[in-house]
Write a structure and sequence with these properties.
The protein folds into 2 domains: 6-230, Spore Coat Polysaccharide Biosynthesis Protein SpsA, Chain A; 234-303. 48% of the residues lie in helices and 14% in strands. The chain is built from 10 helices and 8 strands. It has an 8-stranded mixed sheet, sandwiched between helices. The relative contact order is 0.13.
Length: 318
C-alpha cells in the first residue's frame, strides 16, 4: 500500500469540544479533493476526555490515529513524536482549536508538491486576537526575521506544510516549535515559503498560552541562533572570545611591567601595581578569558557525545 498524500499532525490539550467538528471538516475537504490521508492527534496530557473522543473517532474512521502522553510535555514534544510517526508524502501541522482552516490544505499541498517548497508556513494576516497578543507577536516575528534571515511574517502559525524528509530530518524540543522554519533552514532546507491563511475566532475553550511565552520565545530565539551557528563548534565562539579576553589581559599586564621598568630606569619610585586600576582589569580579563576558553573546550567535548534530547516513555498509541 502506498503512502497517503497527507499526514496531519495535530497536537492538543483539553480540546474535546472541537475535535469532532475538526475531524469532520478535515474529512470533508479530503474527500472533496480526493486526497488519501491520515490524521494523528497527539494528546498532550488532556484531562477533559479528549482521548476518549480520539478513540471514538478512530473506531469510526480508520484514517484517524492518536498518541497520548500521560502528562503534559508541551507542544514541541507533541510535534516531534508526531513527526516520527507520520508516513504521508506531505505533512500538515495545525492546531486543534478550529482557528486553522482545513480549506487551506489543497493550496499548501500544491505549494509543496508542484511549486517545490520544502516548508510553507501559514500567515494569519488578519488576526482575531486582542492587542495584548498581536503587538508582542509582531515584535517577536520582527526579531526572528532579523536574527534568522528568513523572511516570514508569522513564524508561530500552527498551520504549516512540510515535505516528508523535512520532518524526518529535524528534532523539535523544549519550546522550539516556534522556530521550526529556523531549524529546517539549519538542517539544509532553504526553500521556505509563506501563504496568507484565514484565521478563525476560537469557538470553544480558552487559549493555553500566556504572555510568558513571549519572554520564553525570545530566550529560545537566542538559544536556537546559538545552536544553529555554534552547536557543532562551540569552541569557535567561546574559544575566540576567551582568547581575545586573555590577550587583552596580557596586554594590560605587559603595560604594567613596562611601566615598572620605566620607573626603575629613571630611578624613581614606582607606584604599587595594586594601586592602579590596570592591575584589576588585567586580572579580570585574563581570568574571564581562561574560563571562556575552558567552557568552549568542555562544550566541544559535550557536543561530540550528546544524548537524545527527547524521551517519551509514557505514551499510548492507537
Amino acid at each position: 500500500m502506498s503512502n497517503p498524500n497527507l499526514s496531519f499532525v495535530i497536537p492538543l490539550l483539553n480540546e474535546s469540544e472541537s475535535l469532532p467538528e475538526l475531524h469532520a471538516w478535515i474529512q470533508r475537504v479530503m474527500n472533496e479533493h480526493q486526497f488519501t490521508y491520515e490524521v494523528l492527534f497527539i494528546d498532550d496530557g488532556s484531562i477533559d476526555g479528549s482521548w476518549e473522543i480520539i478513540m471514538d473517532l478512530h473506531q469510526k474512521d480508520e484514517n484517524v490515529h492518536g498518541i497520548r502522553f500521560r502528562r503534559n510535555y508541551g507542544k514541541s514534544a507533541a510535534l516531534n513524536v508526531g513527526f516520527e510517526a507520520t508516513i504521508g508524502d506531505v505533512i500538515i501541522t495545525m492546531d486543534a482549536d478550529l482557528q486553522d482552516s482545513p480549506e487551506e490544505i489543497p493550496d499548501l499541498y500544491k505549494m509543496i508538491t508542484v511549486d517545490g517548497y520544502d516548508l510553507v508556513s501559514g500567515w494569519k494576516k488578519k488576526r482575531y486576537d486582542p492587542l495584548s497578543k498581536t503587538i508582542p507577536t509582531k515584535l517577536f516575528n520582527w526579531a526572528t526575521r532579523k536574527m534568522s534571515g528568513i523572511e516570514l511574517n508569522d513564524f508561530n502559525c500552527g498551520l504549516k506544510a512540510y515535505r516528508s524528509d523535512v520532518v524526518k530530518s529535524i528534532e523539535v524540543y523544549g519550546e522550539m516549535h516556534r522556530y521550526i522554519p529556523v531549524i529546517a533552514k539549519w538542517a539544509g532546507f532553504r526553500k521556505i515559503g509563506e501563504k496568507a491563511v484565514q484565521h478563525q475566532e476560537r469557538k470553544y475553550g480558552t487559549t493555553k498560552f500566556g504572555l510568558e511565552r513571549f519572554i520564553n520565545g525570545f530566550l529560545d530565539l537566542l538559544s536556537i541562533t546559538f545552536v544553529s551557528k555554534f552547536g557543532k563548534k562551540p569552541m569557535h565562539l567561546f574559544g575566540s572570545i576567551g582568547t581575545l579576553m586573555f590577550v587583552i589581559g596580557f596586554l594590560f599586564t605587559g603595560f604594567l611591567g613596562i611601566q615598572k621598568l620605566y620607573f626603575i630606569a629613571i630611578h624613581e619610585r614606582a607606584p604599587l601595581i595594586t594601586d592602579t586600576p590596570w592591575f584589576y582589569m588585567a586580572l579580570v580579563t585574563m581570568l574571564i578569558g581562561v574560563q571562556l576558553f575552558l567552557s568552549g573546550f568542555i562544550a566541544e567535548m559535550v557536543s561530540r557525545n550528546s544524548p537524545d534530547r527527547n524521551t517519551y516513555q509514557e505514551k499510548e498509541r492507537i
